[in-house]
Amino acid sequence: MSEKNLPGWLKPALELGPILGFFVAYLILKDRIFTIGGTEYEGFIIVTALFVPVLLAAMGVLWWLTGHLSKMQIVTVVMVVVFGGLTVWFNDGSFFKMKPTIIYLIFGGVLGFGLLRGTSYLQALMDSMLPLTDEGWMILTRRLTMFFIGLAVLNELIWRTQTETMWVYFKTFGLTAAIFVFFMTQGRLFEAHSTEDKDATDTSD
């Protein structure tokens, strides 16, 4: 089954459902202490341990339905498993809190490496989704590279200086909203470098 054949609500539900589930579970369990095998675990650790298999299940269903996952989704899943596992193994929530930092640095680093080579890796990933000129892709890639680096720095500042609850709110809503706002503010770029009008003209000719 292709993404086009999926119900409009299903893909966002599979992508965002685990994150919202993490948020709700954290609010319920954050003040509780669980003793497992003689070791005490805070609610945050337990919620993290539950989040990993839930995310894996959601991405497994998405892969089963569509036949593929994006590279960004694969990297995110791997990072969740690695840092979620370290969080539970060492009973230390710091590992999971630094996960977004590592993910955004990886994304920013890969895009930045492509820019140094004079190419846009973003275009290779999203060319079918956004009809932009080569120049438009380069501009968007430069902006997104800096944006990812900025998110990495912001995440570090939040989890190291604010309360755990503040970080959970930031992770659940702040990062998602930031990405949404970023793309919403690229309207002029999309309009100025769109290839849609050109394609339509070529077709009519």
Automatic annotation (TrEMBL):
Instruction: Answer yes or no on keyword NAD.
Output: no
Pfam families attached to this UniProt entry:
IspA
Where is the protein localized?
Answer: Cell inner membrane
- A GO CC annotation given for this chain: plasma membrane
Topology in membrane: Multi-pass membrane protein
Q: Where are the transmembrane segments?
A: 12-29, 41-66, 72-90, 102-124, 136-154, 166-185
Which residues fall in a coiled-coil region?
none
For whether the record's keyword set contains Cell membrane, the answer is yes
Annotated keywords: Cell inner membrane, Cell membrane, Membrane, Transmembrane, Transmembrane helix
Q: Domain of life here?
A: Bacteria
The family line of this record is: Belongs to the YciB family.
Q: What does this protein do?
A: Plays a role in cell envelope biogenesis, maintenance of cell envelope integrity and membrane homeostasis.
Name of the protein: Inner membrane-spanning protein YciB
